[in-house]
Amino acid sequence: MTKDRIIAICADDYGLSDGVSIGILEALEAGRLTAASALVNGPRWLTMGTELRRRARNADVGLHFNLTLGRPLSPMPAFAPEGVFPPVSTVIRLALSRKLPLAEIRAEIDRQLDRFEAVMGRAPDYVDGHQHVHGLPGVRDALIEAMTARRLAGRTWLRNAADDLHRILLRGADAPKALALALAVQGLSSGFRRAALRQGFATNEGFSGHSVFDPGMDYARAFETYLRAPGRRHLVMCHPGHVDDELKAQDWVTVTREQELAFLLSPRLQEMLEERGLKLARLSEGLPQPCPSGGRMSESASQ
To answer: For the region Disordered, what residue ranges are annotated (predicted)?
Structure first.
């Protein structure tokens, strides 16, 4: 019998609203998640972050670095002149034209890391980005620079939101969105994973979970495709939660969050994992360590 392949299921948007956060806590306590990504710039973080610290004992907790939802933690006159983050389309356009105010963004990265640590009492297990902004040109470099300055290599891993082309095509269902993200993260940013490894930061190997957030979609059937052709340390992204008025006021993704939560709490998830010889695990427990110098990992470790 072959050894189980490690897979992590990561819930994004913890802290977005009470309903979303409570739903994620339910899935964590049921053992159906092994990672949760936290938004820390909103008003719910201080209260809900304390709950996450108490109740996420068997999961990695990461910073969901944010540049596109709500307000920055301190003024960003060039990036957010009205005091509100711009939409992701604007951030992408500025990134690709090399017009992002990177000094402001670097300062916001530090503020969000500080706010995470103030509540959790430690550095994040990993860092990713809301709407995957952490992989954009310029943003990626500012993030890795900030994390290197904090000596987080070997302690904190980075989410690689792209995947190999052959694995994307084998999954089929999420291919269009996954291919677009692979282009943005790997092509336009010249290789997020390579940049992370050069500075001694481990990443996941394999990524899926792209959704069109269609309430008429069978989420269980879609999730089955996310488990196809997994990488060696595979990460499946999801967006579970309960719908409340606070969520409706901030985000158009609503009903599908409850559908995802219902699936995660159902017996079908465990059945799917067992059928494929997949074992839920924290990626922080199975990632290779960087070289003692903090530089590039050995070729064997990074493959």
So the answer is: 284-303
**CA–CA gap between residue 125 and residue 129 (Å, rounded):** 14
φ/ψ of 85, rounded to 5, equals -60, 145
Q: List C-alpha distances in Å: 110 to 75, 103, 142, 218.
A: 13, 11, 10, 40
228 CB contacts (<8 Å, ≥6 apart)? 167, 170, 171, 172
Give pLDDT tens digits for 86-124. 999 999 999 999 999 999 999 999 999 999 999 999 999
Sign of CA dihedral 265, 116, 88, 149: negative
Q: Which position has the token pair 């990561």?
A: 10
Rg of the chain over all Cα atoms, to the nearest angstrom: 18
β-pair partners for 208: 236
CA–CA dist 13, 39 (Å, integer): 6
Q: 288: which DSSP letter?
A: P
Q: Which fold has domain 5-302?
A: TIM Barrel (3.20.20)
Tokens of 238: 């999801």
Q: 180 φ, ψ to 5°?
A: -65, -40
pTM of the model: 0.90
Q: Cα(37)–Cα(53) distance, rounded to whole angstroms?
A: 12
Helices 18-29 and 45-55: crossing angle in degrees, nearest 10, is 0
**Amino acid identity, position 269:** L
The dihedral built from the CA positions of residue 125, 128, 129 and 133, taken in this order, carries a sign that is: positive
Between CA 281 and CA 6 the distance in angstroms is 6
CA 177 to chain CA centroid, nearest Å:
16
